[in-house]
Every structure is written in C-alpha cells, then in structure tokens.
Protein: Cysteine--tRNA ligase
Amino acid sequence: MSLYQTQKLKVYNSLTGEKEVFEPLSEGYVGMYVCGPTVYSNVHLGNCRTFMSFDMIFRYLKHLGYKVRYVRNITDAGHLENDAEDGEDKIAKKARLEQLEPMEVVQQYTLDFHSILQKFNLLPPSIEPTATGHIIEQIEIIKNILEKGYAYEINGSVYFDVEKFNKTNEYGKLSGRKLEDMIANTRELAAQDEKKSPQDFALWKKAEAQHIMRWPSPWGDGFPGWHLECTAMSTKYLGETFDIHGGGMDLKFPHHECEIAQAEACNGHAPVKYWLHANMLTLNGKKMAKSTGNNILPNEMFSGENNILSKPYTPSVVRFFMMQAHYTSILDLSDEALSASEKGFQKLMDAIGSMDNLPTSASSSFNVEEWKQKGYDAMNDDFNTPMLTANLFEAVKRINLIKEGKETITQKDKELFIETMHSFVFDILGLENQNSAMLNSDKLSSVVGLLIQLRNEARANKDFSTSDKIRDQLAEMGIQLNDGKDGTTFSLS
Ligand SMILES: [Zn+2]
Structure:
C-alpha cells in the first residue's frame, strides 16, 4: 500500500479558488508542469523561491508514493521584453548587447540556473525541454488552432482571436478577469498595430530582417509566441490533460490564461486539473528590482557580498527560511529574518545529530505516531511547511526532554522518531546538514594534520617503519600525503 492511500492530500486550486482533495487522473501517477526560467540573466532569488516551492511539492508527491513526471521548461526563445507582444526578444537583446550568439547566452545562463538550483538542493525535473527544441510542435499547434478558427494570419504573423474564443469559452477564468472589462480598460489599437483587438496575442511572429532567432514556417520566417511553448511541451510530455500546472503568481495573467485558451481551442477541453501558484519574495518590505538596488543574487547570499547582509548564509539556511513560509504567502527576506532562521536551523540540526544517542526506556511517555501524523496533516493541508516546521520544533523540545530524563522513549519508537525526522527534514523539505559537512572536513584536516606531525617526528627519529605505516595506511583510506618543499600536504583520492 502506498502512503497516498492513507494520507489525503488537499491542494489549493487557483482555478476554483478552493482547497480540493488531490486525485490524479490516473491512480498512482502525477503529471506536473512548471514554467521554467527565461535564460537571459542570472536567476533571480524570487524565481528560486518558486522553483524551490515546486521542488518541495515534487518531493512530497514522490514521498507519498506517486510516480511523478515533472516537466520544467527552459525558455530560450520567444519571450519578448516586458512580456509584451511587440519588442525585442530578451535573449536576442542580451546577445546583441554582449556580442554573443543567442545560444551562447542561453548556455551561460542555463548553467548558472542549474548550479544555483543544485546549491539549494533542488532535484532535477524528469524532463527539461527547451522552446527552440520544440518549434515543429509549436507550428503544428498553430495549424490546429487556425483550422479550428480561433486564430488569423496577417502579414506573416498569426494571432489568437480572443474575442471569438470568448464566445464559446471563458477567457480570464484563471485570473478572474472579464474580457469586457479588459476591453473597456485598454486604449485603442495603435495605427501600426495589425491585430484585430488589443487582447489578441501572438502565436507566431514574423521575423524582421534584423531578427536573428528565426525559423521557417508555413507563414514565412518567424518565431513562436511565448505562451505557445508551454502548451506544446506540456501536451507533448504530459498529454492533453494533466494533473498539476505550476508557476509564479505573476504568470497567471496573461501567460497561463493564454495557455488555457490555446489548449482549449486545440482540444476542446481544459488542459489542467489543478493550477498551483507560488507567491513572491520581497526584500526588506519592498519589491526586488535591479533598477532600485533593492536586489540580491543567490551567490551573494552564500558569500555575504551584499551590504543588505551582515554575513553569508548557507544555501540550506536560505532554504529553511523559505520553507518556514507557506508557498502561497508573500515572504519578506531580511538579514534579521535570515539570522533567526539560521539559529532555528542549527537547533534542528543539533537535535537530529543527537538522536542516535538518546537513552531508551521500557515505555514511551509521548506518542511518536501522533506527532508523526501531525507532520503529515500539515503537509496534506496544501503543503503547509510552516506548520510542519512548528511540528519539527516540537520534536526538538521532546529530544531535549528525553536527554534530561524528563521524557522516555522505547527503542522501537526511537527508530520511528529518527526515521520520520529524517523524512521530513531531508527528503521532504530538502534541507542538508551543510554545517556538519563543513565541520567534518575541518575535523578531518585536524586529524590528518596530527598524523603528518607524528610522521615527521618518526622520520626525524629515523623510525621509518612508523612513518611508512602512517603514509601507507592513509593511502589505503584514500588520503594521499604529498611531500613538498614547504612541508607535507594531503589530498583525497
Ligand atoms: Zn509557461
């Protein structure tokens, strides 16, 4: 029996505005799509929070025993400046400014994205497709939408006809907007605008002569609209209908709204069962923005090289800080808040580290099963990680009481307690005990340093059998001693 059969998960569905019992389309399997980054600059800490939230969700679904196919794309074409319909491609612009090939820009920032996410201990998605790798699929979808009559071609570009779609479907249902209000609130179409209505969005844009990222199509050389890639890749890898679509709150409109319209126009039914949106991260109470200087890069957090911070913080401390808030709430980052999280994180790691040595008794004075279920109840309530964290600190309290002899635990309960604590902290929240890894490497250096000193003394006393024994036995353990002009150093082989 899988855990998901006994742990009833509820998720907040942005589409209905309600917490719903999570029932995937096929029992035991979950298809999840999350909008990935546009790789034209270093990944933003706010985006890291979004991806970390969905990493926690991915981890929990897997923990419950679901077989999860998690698709997170890389946007490497088609995303125009200001998320607008006109304007320069974000990647092409960066390539022009830095005199690089667009694919050099893509490579550079994809590597940066992966390296930061790895530091935060995010699991890789099952598939990470790119927009440029799916041009053919995108063209096929446009043909399909044209055939169904929900798009029109003009001067080598193809636009989605929002008004026509809205006659039979409901455009705006995810973001709670009404097309009539949108029309009333927009200015007249500019004279040079070729769209029928300002609400229409591009499925394919004609490439002007200077546009470097271009592909041939039935409508001439051009490039796909930004919203289209997610419809193409989610359909290809997860099917016409799948379980979870996630992304940042800021993508609800227009991006996700347009995804729904495209898929419904193509297939005649809704693409997604549960829409999940992660909220934003602010810095010292204000929106993060490069232009105002109220901004911090992930690497600056780890090195402490930003005057917003008094010191560096490890990726796990930052992750713990993020997990202490619910993913649908706005979270404000500040030096004080991080410093408080660091103290909490250390307390938690110290307590976990001491669990193996807890004394056991003939009976338990507290109910480990009940504590464990409280942790699951928190996660089952729309992934309530702050509630889970509170339950972990309840465990820290118990651990200390057991040490002081004020609470008792049986050997069997102790094993369950340790195992559950590890599941919650390391498997589900994705934390790592980085401080202890650092501490261990410090300890290793001191121990090997001591052995090097003893070996030097043995050599000075011409006791070569001892000095050789130290060198050879360390080598057997994979620790290589290297004698140089300035003394002996060691390396791990
Ligand atoms: Zn998307």
Summary: The first strand starts at residue 10 and ends at 13. Residues 434-460 form the longest helix (27 residues). DSSP finds 16 helices and 15 strands in the chain.
